[in-house]
Amino acid sequence: MEQDQESPSPPADPTAKTPPGKAEDAFELWLQRSLHELYDSVTMEPIPPELLRLIAEDRSRRGR
C-alpha cells in the first residue's frame, strides 16, 4: 500500500540557536519601548547637586 503523505519532520532542537528574524526584532522593539516607558521620565530629572559636586571634585583631582 502506497502512502500519499510525507513523513513528519523531526522536532526542532530547542537548544539550537535560531537565526535572527522577526521574533528577535519584535522582542527588541518591545524591550526598547518598555525601557523608554519606564526610564524616560528618570532621564529628564535634574542631576542632584551633591552628585554634580562629586563629579567636579573628581575632575579637579584628575586635572581635567
Helix and strand sequence: HH
- Strand percentage: under 5%
Low-confidence parts: none
Question: CA-to-CA gap between the ends?
Answer: 86 Å
Overview of the structural elements:
The longest helix has 22 residues, at 22-43. The protein has two helices and no strands. It has a domain at 22-62. Helices cover 56% and strands 0% of the residues. The chain is mostly helical.
Helix/strand layout:
Blueprint: H1 22-43, H2 49-62
At a glance:
The protein is an all-alpha fold and 64 residues long. The chain has helices at residues 22-43, 49-62.
List keywords for this structure.
mainly alpha; single chain; 2 helices; 64 residues
